[in-house]
């Protein structure tokens, strides 16, 4: 069964352990600047959420790559960078709507789902990042709406 | 190099000179990092008798070896100096993002020397370290300062700064980072202000490596698992303690005149969660996430920010007899924005309130009716203290100096000129011993005996008896010194202890510490701090408590009739420490610690 990385912004508490886990796995150092997942933090608004590659089905990065260096892995469904083919043009980074592709040491870099066992998920204590079945992946968004409706109904019934 | 960034930045503000030095790994092993290594440097480099606000004092900002790694709550950085409040060794510890960012830029430590001619700031962007003019920042509050820095330099810079309180040398000014995180106690912000250093902004693109990544990952996951039990702190923050400590009868009320506050419920963590909490916020790398993002939406105390924490809601609540959550929260916001310690700020107002009620301060002097419970006066005084206006200029000196000035020094509730935090030691006598012996003055985070005496756990001790307290206090003081120095947060000790810290430190640094060597490092740090204080002129007579705790029985509640039998514990403490009867570390002890 295909699994996808899901994000529940309401659960994120801004700790950035995901960035540490990711960079240790991919850059052999605790180095947020080289993490594929980055937590966007707006302290004054109390808003924080992880930003990471969504492994889009019709992925803009794959489409724009002039050297066919981005390929989809059939097992994990992750879009991977084939380093030998990457020419370092950064077109993929421009094309990605999430800004989820980074670039260092002359090559494009992106989330590879750690081969099917994402470290960021392992190191997310509040469970804002999950690796779940496709069917369950939209549940958090649905619940955000449902919870809002519940609160509204509660208010109506008590007023 | 593993765990350590490897480089120290030395900034001579008088000459505008910046130099970089390599870190000495032999010293790093002996003193761990952060608090330990910083103390070693100020001990070696400054005359302990120096006026804390003089040019010759130095200020060190230091991270630990675990700062910036995936060790749970590995966010800490420390400010080490001679404290403006205490004239003793000071080390104040904070979380947020600044410490890790400093490491990513490539530095473990910044040593600040001298005094700038004009207000200055330090901008660190990886290899580039520059002193710049801060004339546009000077005078601004902490939040406005950070906003302007982010506007000018970019949002990804992490900042420490002082507010108007630090600029005006308020004796308990804090150094703030990431807006609402505070190196709060002992007046480290006044020292920064005396050097005319307004802010430090840092950005780093590098990383921290560890010696054994596989083992380090495993020990971090194990610690994270154990920390799942800290759910209460996530839900209700540190103020979840208000009701617990009040029930034990040791929530200091109205300047320690009693141990139970009738308005505790209204200022509890539960009340905060229900009335003002927007959501929680974690420091870097922290699974506990006890931070409170809050807002008071309506009324004369409207505002927004972070907190209050347990200690601040106590100091600005129970200790001043105020059960108005909005007012106490507003007072806390002002402390954060002006950059001052809410514990000392609240406790100083509490002391002044008792002086007022006892007739030692007049209404004319105070500029208001300064009775316990006067919420408007509290909020008004916070701003006046931060800007040293009117009666605020008197209170800006802290409770010890205020009580002396008005002729009742016995009404200062603290040790070594630093005010107590939120536990009355008459119902936790080991905590009393810890307060009396703490190197930075009265303090809960040098040795949290509260966990052993007041909170439920396997190692619970009778809070009223002296038996075993000296040994337990020493053990927790030494472990805390090692843990602080490592760069992880003390709150992890609600779920993990020495074995987990040892596993993380050895896997990260590659030093083959055993438990004994790690705890000895903590003991070494404690003894060095003690030596600094001894040379600064402190002695056995300073290891004491106010008469109220020693001789006035607790009037009511579970600790009714109790005092702190300090005289029974202190000689045993000295003996177990290997110190002489005057509390001086013996030559044998120092030699065994390599000091």
Account of the 3D structure:
In chain A, 28% of the residues lie in helices and 20% in strands. With 159 residues, chain A is an alpha+beta fold. Chain A has a single domain (3-158), classed as 2-Layer Sandwich (Alpha-Beta Plaits). A two-stranded antiparallel ribbon of chain A has the order 1-8. In chain A, strands 2-3 form a two-stranded antiparallel ribbon. In chain A, a hairpin with a 4-residue loop joins strand 2 and strand 3. Chain A is globular, with a radius of gyration of 17 Å. Chain B has 3 domains: 7-203, Aldehyde ferredoxin oxidoreductase, N-terminal domain (Aldehyde Ferredoxin Oxidoreductase,  A, domain 1, 4-Layer Sandwich); 233-414, Orthogonal Bundle (Aldehyde Ferredoxin Oxidoreductase Protein, subunit A, domain 2); 425-592, Aldehyde Ferredoxin Oxidoreductase Protein, subunit A, domain 3 (Orthogonal Bundle). The longest helix of chain B has 22 residues, at 515-536. At the A-B interface, helix 1 of A face helix 7 and strand 13 of B.
What is the approximate shape of chain B?
Answer: globular
How far is the first residue's CA from the last residue's CA of chain B? 26 Å
CATH topological fold name of the largest domain in chain B:
Aldehyde Ferredoxin Oxidoreductase,  A, domain 1
CATH superfamily of the largest domain in chain B: Aldehyde ferredoxin oxidoreductase, N-terminal domain
Name the largest protein-protein interface in this structure: A-B, 24 and 34 residues
Main sheet of chain A? 2 strands, antiparallel
Short description:
Chain A is α+β, with helices and mostly antiparallel strands and 159 residues long. Chain A is built from five helices and eight strands. Chain A has a two-stranded antiparallel ribbon with strand order 1-8. Chain A has a two-stranded antiparallel ribbon with strand order 2-3.
């Amino acid at each position: 069964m295909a699994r996808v990385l899901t994000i529940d912004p309401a659960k994120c508490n801004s700790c950035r352990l995901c960035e540490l886990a990711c960079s240790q796995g991919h850059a052999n150092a605790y180095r947020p600047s080289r993490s594929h997942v980055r937590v966007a933090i707006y302290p004054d608004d109390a808003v924080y959420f992880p930003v990471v590659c969504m492994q889009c089905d019709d992925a803009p990065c794959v489409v724009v790559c002039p050297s066919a260096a981005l390929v989809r892995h059939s097992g994990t469904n992750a879009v991977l960078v084939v380093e030998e083919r990457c020419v370092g043009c950064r077109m993929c980074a421009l094309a990605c709507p999430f800004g989820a592709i980074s670039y260092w040491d002359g090559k494009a870099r992106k989330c590879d789902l750690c081969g099917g066992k994402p470290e960021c998920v392992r190191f997310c204590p509040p469970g804002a990042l999950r690796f779940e079945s496709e069917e369950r992946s939209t549940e958090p968004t649905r619940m955000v709406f449902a919870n809002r409706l519940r609160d509204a109904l509660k208010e109506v019934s008590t007023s | 190099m593993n765990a350590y960034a490897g480089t120290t930045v030395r900034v001579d503000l008088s000459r505008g000179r910046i130099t970089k030095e390599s870190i000495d790994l032999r010293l790093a092993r002996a003193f761990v990092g952060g608090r330990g290594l910083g103390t070693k440097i100020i001990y070696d480099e400054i005359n302990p008798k120096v006026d804390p606000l003089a040019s010759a004092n130095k200020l060190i900002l230091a991270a630990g070896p675990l700062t910036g790694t995936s060790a749970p709550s590995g966010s800490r950085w420390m400010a080490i100096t001679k404290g403006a409040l205490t004239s003793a060794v000071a080390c104040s510890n904070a979380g947020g993002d600044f410490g890790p960012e400093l490491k990513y830029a490539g530095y473990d430590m910044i040593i600040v020397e001298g005094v700038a001619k004009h207000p200055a700031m330090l901008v660190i962007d990886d290899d580039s370290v520059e002193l710049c003019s801060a004339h546009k920042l000077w005078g601004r509050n902490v939040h406005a300062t950070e906003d302007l820095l982010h506007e000018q330099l970019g949002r990804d810079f992490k900042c420490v700064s002082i507010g108007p309180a630090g600029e005006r040398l308020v004796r308990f000014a804090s150094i703030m980072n990431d807006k609402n995180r505070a190196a709060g106690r002992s007046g480290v912000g006044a020292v920064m202000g005396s050097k005319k250093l307004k802010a430090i902004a840092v950005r780093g693109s590098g990383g921290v490596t560890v010696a054994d990544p596989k083992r380090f990952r495993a020990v971090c996951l194990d610690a994270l698992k154990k920390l799942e039990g800290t759910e209460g702190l996530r839900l209700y923050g540190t103020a979840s303690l208000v009701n617990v400590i009040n029930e034990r009868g040791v929530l200091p009320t109205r300047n320690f005149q009693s141990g139970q506050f009738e308005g505790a419920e209204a200022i509890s963590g539960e009340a905060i969660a229900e009335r003002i909490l927007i959501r929680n916020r974690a420091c870097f790398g922290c699974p506990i996430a006890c931070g409170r993002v809050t807002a008071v939406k309506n009324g004369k105390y409207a505002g927004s920010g972070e907190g209050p924490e347990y200690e601040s809601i106590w100091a600005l609540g129970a200790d001043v007899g105020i059960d108005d959550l909005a007012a106490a929260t507003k007072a806390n916001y002002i402390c954060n924005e002006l950059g001052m310690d809410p514990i000392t700020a609240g406790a100083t107002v509490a002391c002044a309130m008792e002086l007022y009620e006892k007739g030692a301060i007049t209404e004319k002097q105070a500029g208001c009716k300064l009775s316990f419970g006067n919420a408007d006066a509290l909020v008004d005084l916070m701003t006046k203290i931060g800007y040293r206006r009117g009666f605020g200029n008197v209170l800006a000196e802290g409770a010890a100096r205020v009580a002396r000035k008005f002729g009742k020094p016995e009404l200062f509730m603290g040790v070594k000129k630093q005010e107590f935090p939120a536990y009355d030691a008459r119902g936790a006598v080991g905590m009393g011993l810890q307060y009396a012996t703490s190197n930075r003055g009265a303090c809960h985070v040098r040795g949290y005996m509260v966990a052993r005496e007041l909170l439920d756990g396997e190692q619970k001790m009778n809070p009223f008896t002296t038996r075993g307290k000296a040994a337990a206090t020493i053990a927790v003081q030494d472990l805390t010194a090692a843990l602080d120095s490592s760069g992880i947060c003390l709150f992890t000790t609600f779920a993990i202890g020495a074995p987990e810290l040892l596993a993380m430190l050895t896997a990260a640094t590659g030093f083959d510490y055993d438990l004994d060597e790690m705890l000895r490092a903590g003991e070494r740090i404690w003894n060095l701090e003690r030596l600094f204080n001894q040379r600064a002129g402190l002695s056995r007579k300073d290891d004491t408590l106010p008469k109220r705790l020693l001789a006035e029985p607790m009037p009511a509640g579970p600790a009714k009739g109790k005092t702190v039998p300090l005289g029974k514990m202190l000689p045993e403490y000295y003996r177990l420490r290997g110190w002489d009867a005057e509390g001086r570390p013996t030559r044998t002890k120092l030699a065994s610690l390599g000091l």
